[in-house]
Amino acid sequence: MDWAGAMKISLPFSRLLNDRGGNFGIITAIVAPLAFGAAGIAIDITQAMQIKAELQAMADSASLAASKAMSEDDLTPAQAKERAEKIYAGQMVNYLKTGKETDAEIDEMIAAQKAALKITIAEAANGSRGKTYTITVASTYQMPVNAMTGLITGSNMNLATSSTAASATESTNGISMYLALDRSGSMSFKTSTVIKNASCVNYTENNWGNKNVTNTRDSRYIWPEKPCYVRKIDALKTAAGSMFTALNTADKNSNLVRVGAVSYTDETQSASSIDWGTSKAAKYVSNLPSIPEGGTDANGAMTAAINALKSSNSTEKDAHSKKGNNSFSRFIVLMTDGKMTGYSANFNYNLDQGVRAKCDAAKKDGIQVYTVAFMAPSEGKSLLNYCATDSSYYYEPDDMEDLVKAFGEIAEKAAKATTRLTN
């Protein structure tokens, strides 16, 4: 090694380092460009993070809006894509513009942002009738950078975002409902609702024993009078009508709702078998006698309802499957205005317990039981309160208005089971 030559180089450099007079300027000249470069890169990185967050928010809003529009507004994939592009590009241009651009330049900016988007739409089945939509909005943006950052990334930094949103149309769930309705003699009694400008025979518990007296000279004869009150049976028909209307509204094409009905006194009358829509059940209820007679025993009616709806009976499942309803809910609506007496005027404990046992069996099988104790005595209220699926399934109206309201609410609650929306 040429030590003499090395000494010639090192001695001046050593003197330079040991010279305190000009070191600050030299070090500054060396370090300052590096410091400014690092600061410039840091600024670009911070800006990139902010812009990327904005891009993500824009992509999210575009994908969510488009997916929602497909499920709620029934947009086609092409229309949904166009909506997503419009939302994203509009927001992006608002973010980037300086306010000095001409309309033509704004249009060019919007076109460029749309061109930078990649939108994919996937569609799949949701149950028998519904559909699910998955929309992905992917975007890129070339962010200009300073010269120091450009040494690493080039003149622009590529920022990419992607957002996926899903929505669904409603899938359908059928319902099968069976009405078990009291048409005993007490259903001929008057309510508190007045029929204006009319006179009629108002039956009550006190004069019911004289209903068959036809001799007008007999003091027991029941004369028509004013005001005339709506009978319980007619109040029931009105209430059932409101229920059928609500169910028809939920199922305009009779593809979801199946209804059956049976009435009872101390005996069980012939039933209206469960069928699509409400027309058969509505006719059955409308044809109930205007002055019903007899005692009260709901055991046979409950048996008929349970047999029609029980899970071991495949009739309802098969019927709904043929309509494309892969699932369905089962309901019994048990209504009475009295207590279990059989063919007598006295409470019959065994009959009451029999109805309770049938209610237990229905609920154990998964059948939902609504109960309506209309102007009923304490024994009737106790029974129906027990039979209801829970307290929200139990009603005890004391007038026609509340009876109509109760049947309407039951229909609305049941109708909600026909739709299941997944977002």
Automatic annotation (TrEMBL):
* Source taxonomy: Bacteria, Pseudomonadati, Pseudomonadota, Alphaproteobacteria, Hyphomicrobiales
Superkingdom field: Bacteria
All copies of the VWFA domain together span 176-410
Q: InterPro entries under this entry?
A: Tad_N (IPR028087), VWF_A (IPR002035), vWFA_dom_sf (IPR036465)
Q: What is this protein called?
A: VWA domain-containing protein
Question: Does the UniProt entry include the keyword Chaperone?
Answer: no
Could you list this entry's UniProt keywords, alphabetically sorted: Membrane, Transmembrane, Transmembrane helix
Which residue ranges run through the membrane? 21-43
Q: What SUPFAM superfamilies does the record tag this protein with? A: vWA-like
